[in-house]
Amino acid sequence: MSGTSALLWSLVLLPAATGGVLALSGGGGRTAGTYDRPGGTGPAAPAVAVAVAAVTLVLAVAAALVRPAARAGFVAGGPLELAVDGLSAAVIVTVAAVGLLVLLSAAAGIRAERPRFFGLMLLFVAAVLVTATATTLTALLLAWEVMGATSYALIAFRWREDAPAAAGTTAFLTTRAGDLGLYLTAGAALAAGTAAADRFALGALPALDGPWLHLAAAGVLLAAFGKAAQLPFSFWLSKAMLGPSPVSALLHSAAMVAMGGYLLLRLRPLLESAGWAAAAAAWGGALTALALGAVALAQRDLKQLLAASTAAQLGFVVLAAGAGSVAGGTAHLVAHAAVKSLLFLAAGVWLAALGTDDLGALRGAARRDRAVGLPFAVGALALAGVPPLSLWATKDEILAAVDSPALYGVVLAAAVLSALYAGKALGLLLAPGPSGTAVREPEEGASGPLRSVPLAVLAAGAAVLGALALPPPAGELKQAVGVPGEPSAGAATMAATAVLALAATAFAAALAPRLPEPSWARGWLHLETAAHTVAVRPVLALGRGLARFDDAVLDRGATRLPAAVRRLGRRLARFDDADLDRAATGTATAARRLASWASAADRSGVDRAVRGVADGARYLGELARRPQTGQLHQYYVQALVLLTAAAVLLLLLR
Amino acid sequence: MLSLTVFLPLAAALVLLAWRGLPDAAVRWLWVAVSGADLALVAALWATYDGPGIGHETDRPWIPGAGAGYHIGVDGLSLPLLALTATVFLACAVYSLRGQRDIRRFAALFLALQTTCLGLFAALDLILFFLFFDLSIVGMYLVIAGWGHGEQAARSALKFFLYTFVGSLALLLGFIGLYAASDPHTFDITELTADPPLQGGGAAGPLVLLAIAVGLAVKTPTFPFHTWLPPAHTDAPAAGSAVLAAILLKMGTYGFVRIAMPILPEDWRAHAMVFVAVGVVSALYGALVALAQSSFKRMVAYTSVNHMGYVLLALGAAGFIAGTDEQARSTAVTGAVVQMVSHGLITGALFLLAGVLMDRGGTYEMDAWGGLAGPMPRFAALTAVAAFAGLGLPGFSGFIAEFQIFAGSLGAVPVATALALLGILVTAGLFLWALHRLFLGARRGPKPVGADLRPAELLSVAPLLALSLLIGVLPRWLLDTVEPAARAVVGLVSR
Questions:
Q1: A190 interface with B at CB cutoff 8 Å
Q2: A642: closest chain B residue by CA
Q3: Residue A81's Cα: distance from chain center in Å?
Q4: CB pairs under 8 A between A and B
Q5: Would the CB atoms of A190 and B327 count as touching at under 8 Å?
Q6: Structural domain containing residue B387
Q7: How many folded domains does chain B comprise?
């Protein structure tokens, strides 16, 4: 193992191993919990996890500089191969940094069952790091699904209630429905029969020929749309908000959903090669940005608003991959990670301190609690696309790659919607005057340094990361991700979007309580109902129907056959008793009679011999009765023995 | 040494039967020791096997007049299954350390059963194969009838016995057909493989394949021959269920790769679509029916039908040689063999865990439980790991198997593979739902709660799952053995 591959392995194995051990270590103490009371709380877990996350960040930065590659044997044609290039360097540093900040914040926020929480978070981070560095489909799929499984466990973290557990199941099943696409992609890569040594290499996908290329592209789109909560999969993200806030701050901002966008950025050559797939990604992303933007605007609950906004913002990244702005998409991904993580952490602080995340009840919360409110305001303004904050510049960079006027119109409308929903949240949280009814006074120390420092760092990121989309760093990013020729936004466009965002934000902030909240948008386009109607309920009904069929038809058919055999057996037994047995007994009796007759005739001479014959015959008669036990399986054994004997006999006599 | 490995458990069984005065504790530990020694022997066999081809071979005349010999040996197909057998039986021995009624006879029966299982996977003669096949049925019948719980145990045992026994008769018929068609007449698997009879058309080939396939399909089991499985599992003791699911089912699928495919290549290719169809229907049907179960153990039983369906899908796909690529077909067969091992480890663990459920609360009904993760965190954690392994999560052996099955079959039978792929989504749903009903949410029933996993339970289940994890993360040690054998099977089928 070379030094650089050791670096990469330790980057992914350190959080994976520590996380696995922590997650399975139980409550720390050996005290088992009861139905109502959790076991030990594991006071050391947060410290261990934060330390590991810090080392992981250092390793990620080192890997981003060294650009290592590593390889281990796995299935034929699909080794576990990891490598860091410009794109993955940006992603792994982002994930490791956000991961560390979120864990710091969670050290103050999560009180119960901490080993499990922090262990799962570390496992999740490891899975994301593998996803972002994978260069083969096998490595990608491995990490991709582990990411989904850990997200199930994290969303369902408060397992004593039914709702989070059901939400975790929804999230896992919905994203796994998308994951099936990657299995199809892998099958297509293998079936196409390319000469490449590693058929499962991601780099070999754009060169597939014929229908396999299109199947591979379709599979990748399906998987990415599922993870990135794009239409029509978006509903799982709404339910996922039942998980703890730090989970949302990592999974639903910087990592899991972002990986859906990352996959398409990574496989942009495949989308381009398939032709239609690039257009599908561009339109899918743009329409998600538009529709989920409207959904976000209609929410009355802060976390729900942020969740819908995540799907919408990822829509811009997916659009970027489709339209051909890999650098712009990467910049948007990184900047959005900082922005959304910040907003979710702030929402979590208020949820813990004030017991609500209802926007009406949170009125003025940001104004009263400056340590949280100020970073929140920066994040919300960045989300709105207000200059000079980050998402303004990154969004324009993506817009520059869009050349269809219709698509351009949709994207612009989606950008205005982001300004509107961010403005709405800002307007309500900064509103002066009487506070909402449900608000209790913030607890002492609710925003201690463990919470305020991560918020401040993230706010700084939310403010300045837009530089990635502004010259000169934009040019360097393009070089780094290998797309030097991509267009950049002109000054006029940037000025125009800046004015648009400012106006829309101000408008929404001023009118916040009176903005329309149509029920179709509040209810997330009724996507979950639709999924239940077209998929979940029919499958459950089919399962129940087949189970009845299994018991009533297949099984009964199978039992009827042996029953018939048994009847036959009984009849044979009767025949045995009635006729054969009588014959046997008859023989014995006849022999006895013969014997007495003979003894009468000749008492001395043949008597003993004849009695012997009679006894022998009686014994034979008894023997003939012995197998008639009435036990079906014994008949079978006899049948088998006879059959085998007959077969052997036949063979010997042939 | 292979013969010693096969018959060591039988010898121990005879000792146990004869030595009536042996105290129960000594019986338990003797059982563990013998099983452990046998596992060590298998490991040694594996370590000294220098494939490809058949190693550790013994070929002695047995019934020379009938062309049957005592011919045993190992290769890349049988070694993993021999290792699985030894591992699962050791796990059952350890599990039974927690206490078992009439342990002396129970242990003797299991040891004898272990010999039949090992013998079957080592057999290179059809009569020998058949003998072990049938003896395993008798052994399992006695386990279910003698140690099963519930009033239905005797009935379920009888059903199992009849069903699989009738299947074995069909198998015997097929074997005799092979014998009759071979020239010179022989039951030797290697000779039949080297010079397959019934080539070149004719009606006999399909009929013989039908007889063999029905016999193996009953044991596997595939749709529609699976209805003996749920009652047998429900009423069997935990260790019996584990062996039944982990080892006995594999005899069916192993028969396909060892006998049906190499000896009847032409007919296999001609009827490959039938096997693909049966595989897909079994996979989907098993998953959907499992989804509707309310009993945890019945649910796991039906998932076996699902998982074995994938094996048949892959083996059927390997019969499509026109327009497909050899590497893809080898991948599919490799996946099928890994699936046998993987299913054995994971489902064995799940059935042992189901035994814990019965032990603590006397029921497998999932709705009777709820919130168990609180008082039984270790039980919940292990079951959750087993469930995620069972739904094919990467990082566990099931993924190595299913990924290769799907990727390898897609080129040959794209529609069937895409349909079967939906099975892993249904499986995910049913396992997560089961976890929710048993362990999460509020406590539902008034069931008393027993202690968390005892050491014997933990030490029997955890190693099975650890092995699944090991294969899932570092599969090369297994695949390096399986892949050459799978390539050989693919080569034999495409003759």
A1: yes
A2: B169
A3: 21
A4: 210
A5: yes
A6: 271-495
A7: 1
